[in-house]
UniProtKB/TrEMBL annotation:
Stretches with biased composition (Basic and acidic residues): 17-26
Pfam families xref list: PIG-F
Lineage start: Eukaryota, Fungi, Dikarya, Basidiomycota, Agaricomycotina
InterPro entries in alphabetical order: GPI_biosynthesis_protein_Pig-F
UniProt protein name: Phosphatidylinositol-glycan biosynthesis class F protein
Subcellular location(s) per record: Endoplasmic reticulum membrane
Residue spans crossing the bilayer: 38-59, 150-173, 185-208, 238-258, 270-292
Keyword Transmembrane helix among record annotations: yes
Segments of this protein annotated with the region Disordered: 1-27
Length: 322
């Protein structure tokens, strides 16, 4: 071995030991906690799903709906089956009240989801107190809110257009074409309100533009509703209720084909209540999945921090010993 190679190796070993010493002296990296308002999210989902159920079961039976009820039905309200009678006597009236209540609730729910998406986009983290970051978040919020009314208008337009599309699909699946067209459209409107409006208001309506924002938005819609691949809690809160709505509407049409001749088999009561039930189940499922994934990510982060702390302990003990 030549004498010149020994000093080179010694210098390399000194550099490596210096790098290891610097890495050991660095503090453990504190990974930021992604913004996930679990407490608020749980309470809002509970209130929202409860109000959706109230809209479907109690709103058509209120004093306002009694103005549009026949006198014969008003005289039978004291009987045990008055609830079913009120809901099935006029399916068009029942579905109209469900759509009206769902419209109000979905506007509130979509607004809350939009604010949540804004906080996630602005990079809000738990315990963040950086003045510069707060200023950037404030500017982003102002820019986001400036287009709120335009986004709301486009979301309403998307809901109306998709309601027509859903109505055509429902007719192709066997809904009556010569009668009950208004009932079929209200069913399509209900499905659009529960599945499309929140996504359109929160994510934005996809377009065929060539700019970066339009491309990202279009690919996001394809990933969510074609690939069924949500990546964030907000996307899961949008996608799972939409899937539940469509599946519930489809499953709810099965009892109509049964030859039971029951009043609740009138078109389109069972698909409408199936869509509402599927939406509630999807919302609760999204809550459960988001909660479990959040706990898993917190545990994984703590394990990584503990492992990095253990790797740095021997270096510090050696340094103290020397």
């Amino acid at each position: 071995m030549s004498p010149t190679t020994q000093p080179q190796r010694s210098r390399k070993s000194q550099k490596q030991s210096g790098k290891e010493r610097e890495e050991s002296e660095r503090p453990a990296v504190q990974l930021p906690t992604a913004f996930f308002p679990f407490a608020r999210y749980t309470s809002v989902v509970g209130v929202h799903t409860s109000l959706i159920a109230f809209t479907a079961l109690f709103l058509p039976r209120t004093s306002l709906s009694s103005l549009f009820r026949s006198s014969a039905a008003n005289g039978q309200l004291g009987k045990p089956d008055d609830v079913l009678l009120t809901l099935t006597e006029n399916p068009l009236r029942t579905l109209a009240w469900i759509c009206a209540g769902s419209c109000v609730l979905q506007v509130w729910w979509a607004s809350w989801l939009r604010n949540w998406a804004l906080d996630a986009r602005a990079g809000v983290t738990e315990g963040a107190d950086d003045t510069t970051r707060r200023t950037e978040q404030k500017l982003l919020r102002e820019e986001w809110n400036s287009g709120r009314f335009a986004a709301f208008r486009m979301a309403c337009l998307a809901a109306v257009v998709t309601s027509v599309v859903f109505s055509i699909v429902i007719i192709l699946y066997g809904a009556p074409l010569n009668s009950h067209l208004l009932r079929t459209y209200l069913l399509g409107l209900l499905v659009a309100l529960l599945s499309v409006f929140s996504a359109a208001y929160t994510l934005g309506v996809p377009s065929l533009g060539s700019d970066t924002e339009s491309l990202v938005r279009r690919l996001t819609w394809i990933r969510l509703f074609a690939e069924l691949s949500p990546r964030t809690p907000v996307e899961r809160a949008i996608l799972y209720p939409a899937i539940g709505t469509v599946l519930g509407c489809w499953v709810g049409a099965i009892p109509i084909g049964l030859d039971w001749e029951r009043p609740w088999q009138a078109w389109p009561l069972t698909p409408a209540y199936g869509a509402v039930s599927g939406y509630i189940v999807g919302s609760l499922w999204a809550l459960a999945i988001n909660g479990v994934r959040q706990l898993y990510e917190i545990q994984l982060r703590e394990n990584r921090e503990a492992a990095s702390a253990k790797r740095s302990e021997p270096q510090h003990t050696k340094k103290k010993g020397t």
